[in-house]
Write a structure and sequence with these properties.
Radius of gyration: 35 Å
Number of helices: 41
Oligomer: single chain
């Protein structure tokens, strides 16, 4: 271990010496090429005044304190990391968010949470002094904002029935009690904006027979639901949920959804199920979308109406009245919400004081309730009388137990806001047990960016449910409401992270830019009536998972600013309260497991570990080595020349200079001082500066000339001067010089072998009056694989078909093209031991699976795609080493004909002039055939046209926030222009953490496709679906894997398990890479998903629909990391590229002038 440490330490010093030498070289070049700028201090009085302002600002905002804290943490460390900036970035994120949470002082918040109260004749019911719209227990009334509730008065009045319909039921009467329950009841007081409007309608029906009362209640509920189903209703019903309580502990309650069409077609069955739900004391809730005017503008909010029945049996021959309560718990509404009318609150209280006709449904919740002779008193089992201004403990305990159990399912950070909602109910239920500071902390958290983002992103699910339940383009009112909902969603989401409203760190600004593009594109899709509903829903769901990942980071930062309310401590106390009632069997809840680490995965591998085989990319080991490099302070003290008393300080000072902390800090201060006024929040800029410094330490370990030497291959040799065709003799490939100049020939040889295996089918050469030939070439990022692009995402092959025939034979040409292409696909499908078919794609949309499609249907798809000149390709997988590599085989039709003695060419695919500059053909004949028949002559005019096309592609990539594809496009522009200057910075982009995230996302996509193939193969063999590889809950014994390969369809199970192992190892390594800056909560969330689908003892994976969903969600959870890291990498490597673009545009301008 000592030798390893010494070796790593020496390598660390070498890297630092390299960076110091690079820094010195930069200084020398700058001194030669640039005029030296000399600082001219202002006048004495002005300088002193300016400095006083700056020093006061830095002190008030605690920025200097953070820097000192960071430096001291380094001074106390015995090992100094090669790159300390990721740690400091994480330390600066909570202060950046604190600015948004601490806008109001404690006194202002306390006053908001202490409404002045007015008493009523009942000691339990309180109102707000001077107001008439809030009535309930004083602990809740204290914190409700009556002005906010008043905004919903009109919409609530419209949403509730006017009265109980008891026609044809003589002797029966009733009334409806209306209340609002959390979280809307706490809006304004705690939450800036409610997520949902929850209305509770409690039907109090008087009569002589319970069965008749039930029948009256069911008919009233159906009538109210049918009213909401009307097309002219302002409230659009999404669905009705009927939840039946489980009879066994530990099992979930059963729930059924009734949508509009089902309710209208099966109204009688709907009524029967409502009756059964009521009798089992279940939950009946109508979910809807409500439009309302808050006084300033129109809004759309998700709402729900919950229906509860209390039947009071009035028997003339008996003394008193009996209460048959079909609610879950007595007094539950008073503990969860407030009433809008004083009479409703008092009626509810009087109703609860009657003797129940039926006991509660669970033994743990049983209470014997007896009506008291004196009004206002309630006798509970044990002889306790209720006379205080708060409910007795024996009443609260069942409701508290309900929420304590609910918290057990909300332990993950992504459920934090539902958890806070439940926590508020529990805290307000026992407000005397908690300090006011706890409520202040919760208030601050609910004012955070995280909460505002959550309120905005929650509307995504409402939009999905609206489209699923009501559909697109149904009627003008529905369309108008959908547009209104979408515009509100878009506005709220963009406003949350808008850097123009509040300064934001670079990663949050990148998220905002991505949202702008994505939401604009989604809006355009919603306007097209040809868009498929499934496509729209899929795009919304993808955006929802992206937002979930962003939410994790924001929530993690906000929770670190809560001093008095610690979520973990609160959960611990909840579990302690729950454990006596659960018989001491306190299981470890989901989300509390330790995060997955690479060491744990290694221990989980079975006998005969193949760790050494699982190599990721051409230079993966070199890319990932930085995280293990450090400087041992004790060793450095022995080798330096400082006095003993100053040795440690000398090492630390030299270290700070080597990592250029003085430059980073100085640049940050200059940025602050250059502003007319200092920014209100100084931390976003500091976070941005630290993120950039982290990536510079990560990417600038090599000199430009060293990178250029390794990237640029041997000069290609001329093969055909007339066609400007070049070749690389070592691997025998042909193409334009731009495609060959940076080819890694060793890596390309392996790719060529695979290309030969896929393209060994020779098409027919003559068919009547048509001549047919073909050629295969590599294209896309496949050409750059090796030194320039270290990771393989997908191999891209273009199979060109040249069909020569008479003029005006397009129909016959398309038929012939479909025949040869379908035969090629069928032949590849028949090679079952080599390839796994993922499907046929048109314009990146999957149109069919290959395994079962007939040749006739396949031909129809091919003809349709070619006639529309769409991109047509077959996606398949081929195993290489430990993984299945994705391959995209594009089919391209060239129609050659003679028109007026001139040879003509028509392409039946989207033509892009830049593509042929990436074509690498496997033989000279095929290359010559393409460039002779299909390529334009290379002139100055064609080059300018090509550059314009590349600029257009580059602009499109940047608009879509696809930074890495943009740099691949820019790389091609450099190669075509013969400008090697920016290649080093482009190399850094492709070796950055962003490129690693892109690679891991591609692995998740490949696994999703393979699991989908396994599942469909199993469905074809068995009528009842079941997983191919199940995650056994029992502990499996480690067994030596069999040597004989096991196949499911075309998939080798041993190779698939190796791929799962490789994916989990690389994913873990990536998430724990410091410069990736992945939040801990994101690591936990992804780890939980992996554990639900993968058996880490054998690396088997469950082959079922849930696994497909989880892998897709993991891919989209990683997407924000890709967006933010790519944006930071772009800002770090952008300057030399911008200089090149400026010089190129100037040169183009001069050429135009000439």
């Amino acid at each position: 271990m000592a030798s390893v440490s010494s070796e790593v330490n020496s390598q660390y010093k070498s890297n630092l010496r390299t960076q110091s030498a690079m820094f010195q070289n930069d200084l020398e070049q700058n001194s030669q090429n640039k005029k030296r700028f000399i600082y001219q201090p202002p006048g004495e009085s002005e300088a002193a005044s300016r400095m006083t302002v700056v020093m006061s600002y830095l002190k008030d905002t605690n920025v200097v304190e953070q820097m000192v804290k960071f430096s001291r943490s380094l001074a106390r460390s015995s090992k100094l990391p090669y790159n300390p900036y990721p740690v400091f970035t994480q330390q600066c994120l909570p202060p950046a968010e604190k600015f948004h949470m601490y806008k109001e002082d404690d006194e202002t918040i306390r006053s908001k949470l202490q409404n002045p109260l007015q008493s009523t004749t009942s000691k339990l019911i309180w109102g707000i002094n001077g107001r008439t719209n809030i009535w309930g227990l004083k602990n809740l009334v204290h914190v409700v904002d009556p002005d906010y509730v008043e905004k919903f008065h009109e919409v609530i009045e419209q949403a509730i029935p006017s009265d109980v319909d008891v026609t044809e039921r003589e002797g029966y009467s009733g009334q409806i009690l209306t209340s609002l329950t959390s979280p809307v009841v706490l809006m304004g007081g705690f939450q800036p904006r409610p997520i949902t409007l929850q209305i509770r309608l409690e039907y109090v029906i008087y009569g002589t027979d319970v069965s008749t009362g039930l029948d009256v209640f069911v008919k009233n509920v159906i009538s109210d639901v049918k009213t909401a189903l009307k097309d002219n209703s302002e409230s659009k019903l999404l669905y009705v949920s009927l939840t039946t309580p489980s009879q066994e502990e530990g099992t979930r309650d059963g729930m059924t959804k009734w949508v509009k069409s089902k309710i209208e077609d099966q109204e009688e069955d709907f009524g029967t199920e409502i009756l059964q739900t009521v009798q089992s004391q279940g939950n009946i809730k109508a979910h809807m979308v409500i439009s309302f005017d808050d006084g300033s503008s129109q809004h759309v909010i998700r709402g729900s109406k919950e229906y509860i029945l209390y039947f009071i049996e009035v028997s003339p021959g008996h003394d008193g009245e009996k209460l048959a309560s079909f609610g879950e718990h007595p007094y539950q509404t008073l503990l969860e919400g407030v009433y809008l009318k004083k009479a409703d609150a008092e009626t509810y209280l009087l109703t609860m004081q009657r003797h129940p006709a039926n006991p509660p449904r669970k033994p743990s919740r049983k209470m014997s309730r007896h009506a008291s002779r004196n009004a206002g008193e309630m006798k509970i089992s044990g002889g306790i009388k209720q006379k205080e201004d708060d409910l007795e403990e024996v009443i609260k305990q069942p409701i508290r137990l309900k929420y304590l159990k609910l918290i057990g399912d909300l332990l993950k950070v992504e459920d934090c806001f539902r958890l806070i909602d439940v926590a508020l109910i529990l805290i307000l239920m026992d407000r005397g047990r908690y300090n006011i500071e706890t409520l202040v902390d919760i208030y601050r958290f609910l004012q955070s960016t995280s909460c505002r983002f959550y309120s905005a992103s929650c509307q995504n699910q409402v939009l999905v449910e609206f489209i699923q339940s009501i559909g697109l383009w149904k009627d003008s009112l529905s369309d108008s409401m959908l547009k209104k909902m979408y515009q509100q969603y878009k506005e709220d989401l963009l406003k949350t992270l808008n850097p123009l409203l509040h300064e934001r760190p670079s990663h949050q600004t990148a998220y905002h830019c991505y949202f702008v593009y994505y939401l604009n594109e989604l809006e355009a899709l919603l306007k097209e009536e040809t868009t498929l509903t499934k496509q729209i829903i899929r795009r919304f769901l993808q955006l929802g998972v992206f937002c979930e990942s962003v939410q994790l980071q924001l929530t993690e930062d906000a929770l670190k600013n809560c001093v008095h309310f610690n979520v973990k401590n609160f959960l611990t106390s909840c579990k302690e309260q729950l454990s006596p009632t659960s018989g001491g069997t306190n299981k470890k809840p989901a989300g509390t497991e330790s995060n997955m680490k690479a060491e744990e995965v290694k221990d989980a591998t079975n006998e005969g570990s193949v760790k050494s085989v699982l190599k990721h990319g051409a230079e993966d080991a070199e890319i990932m080595q930085q995280r293990f490099q450090y400087l041992a302070v004790e060793d450095a003290m022995k080798s330096n020349n400082h006095p003993v008393i100053m040795a440690k300080e000398g090492v630390l000072m030299q270290y700070l200079l080597n990592i250029r902390l003085d430059d980073v800090w100085g640049e940050y201060l200059r940025n602050i001082m250059d502003e007319p006024t200092p920014p209100p929040n100084p931390y976003p800029r500091l976070v941005t500066a630290m993120r950039k410094a982290s990536l510079k330490m990560r990417l600038f370990g090599k000199r430009d000339q060293d990178i250029m030497r390794s990237v640029v291959s041997k000069q290609p040799q001329i093969a055909d001067r007339k066609l400007n065709l070049y070749s690389l003799s070592e691997c025998g490939v042909f193409g334009l010089k731009s495609a060959l100049v940076i080819v890694d020939q060793d890596k390309l040889k392996k790719v060529i072998e695979l290309a030969d295996a896929i393209s060994d089918q020779e098409p027919i050469k003559q068919k009547g009056k048509f001549q047919i030939s073909s050629g295969v070439c590599l294209s896309g990022r496949t050409v750059f694989y090796g030194q320039m692009v270290p990771y393989v995402l997908k191999l891209e092959l273009h199979h060109h078909f040249y069909i020569k025939g008479p003029l005006g034979s397009v129909s016959e040409v398309l038929q012939l093209f479909s025949k040869v292409v379908s035969e090629d696909i069928i032949a590849l499908r028949g090679n079952s031991q080599r390839f796994v078919m993922a499907g046929v794609y048109v314009d990146d949309q999957k149109v069919t699976d290959v395994d079962e499609v007939s040749q006739v249907d396949l031909s129809t798809i091919i003809i349709d795609a070619a006639s529309k000149k769409s991109i047509l390709y077959l996606k398949l997988y081929h195993f290489i080493g430990w993984r299945y590599v994705a391959i995209g085989k594009h089919y391209r039709l060239h129609y050659l004909f003679v028109d007026n003695a001139d040879d003509r060419h028509e392409a039946f695919f989207p033509e892009n002039l830049s593509e042929e500059h990436l074509y690498v053909f496997l033989s000279k004949e095929e290359a010559m055939e393409y460039f002779q028949k299909c390529s334009e002559e290379q002139t100055e005019a064609s080059k300018q046209k090509l550059m314009a096309q590349l600029d257009l592609d580059l602009s499109g990539n940047l608009t879509r926030r696809e930074i890495l594809p943009a740099y691949r496009c820019f790389l091609l522009k450099c190669l075509i222009g013969g400008q090697p200057l920016p290649l080093a910075d482009i190399w850094r982009v492709f070796h950055s953490p962003a490129a690693q995230v892109e690679y891991v996302m591609s692995l998740a996509e490949s696994l999703r496709d393979l699991v989908d193939s396994c599942f469909k193969c199993h469905l074809r063999k068995q009528p009842t679906p079941s997983p191919v590889l199940q995650n056994s809950k029992k502990k499996q014994k480690t067994e030596v894997p069999k040597k004989e390969p096991t196949f499911v369809g075309n998939i080798n199970m041993q190779t698939l398990c190796l791929m799962v192992q490789g994916f989990t190892e690389k994913l873990s390594e990536l998430l724990h890479e410091p410069s990736v800056l992945a939040p801990t909560s994101l690591i936990t969330a992804i780890n939980d998903k992996l554990k639900s689908i993968i058996n880490f003892q054998s690396f088997s994976i469950a082959a079922n629909p849930q696994t497909i969903i989880e892998l897709e969600e993991i891919r989209h959870l990683l997407h924000p990391l890709l967006v933010s890291l790519a944006d930071d990498v772009d800002s770090v490597c952008r300057e030399p590229i911008l200089q090149f673009l400026d010089s190129s545009s100037s040169a183009a301008g001069r050429a135009t002038d000439m």
